[in-house]
Amino acid sequence: ETTAVAPELVGEGEPLTNLEADAPGAAYGLRFNGRQTVLTYRVGPQEGIWRILLDGEPLLEDGEAVTIDAYSATTRYGVRRTLPPVESGEHTVTVVNSGERNPQSGGTLINVAQVEVLPLYPESNLGLVIGLLLLVQLVGLALSFVLGPALFAGLAGALDTKRTIFLALVVYGVIAVWGYFLNAVIEFWFLAWLVAVVQGGSQGLSRSLYASLSPASKSGEFFGLFSIMEKFASFLGPLLFAAAVAIFDSSRPAVLSLVLFFVIGGFLLTRVDVEQGRAVARAEDEALWAAGSGEG
Hints:
It is a single chain. With 296 residues, the protein is of the alpha+beta class. The protein is built from 9 helices and 12 strands. A hairpin with a 2-residue loop joins strand 7 and strand 8. The chain is elongated, with a radius of gyration of 32 Å. The N and C termini lie far apart (104 Å). The relative contact order is 0.10.
């Protein structure tokens, strides 16, 4: 027998259709592919005790067969029970009317609204992740000693401070794009490793380049502006991230939105004439020293 439940009784925008039976052995089954399910049902004064089967066998939790005593002095709809996780794969979960009841219950009804299959999240293996990261580091060290001088000496000579910062921005952009498609724990660890590769160097080189473009006599003014802009960026980034989450209802587009900062930063960096800036800074210092010497 099916019964429609009004939305106001379940606190949802749409009505639920409940499957109801009172005969012992009456069952509701669902075939699914996953690890874990959530059962939604009704409790009340006429409900009985149900057995939960997995692939025709009792579903176990802590070595005990899972049962649901659906008796309640008052009727409530939309009650949820998360069933124990099982091995990933195709299964059939079945809710069976055992014909038994709580001593206070007036019947043995079974009343099921739905069975929801929870998303299948990738399992984490921290030992494997750490091992792979260590392996990558060892391979990197070996290659740097054996092939580094031959392959990267020219590249190291060509990468001045400005170009290295630009390369770091490109890597950050790759990280943000990869973060949008992230689908496994090991990918997260490799992204964290990529961030570690460029984070410290890019920040140190940025400050170094900025310092070389700042007149020593006005370092307070220049680095005061630097500090203010840094605080502004630390506010603007989370604001954009939160706005993207609110608009798309997902953190994936929010991570991808951070590419905007790297694109803007890369464009502004291409407009910087480092040699001209250093020349202006030196001229400013020389003019100040000349003025001071003249006064002396």
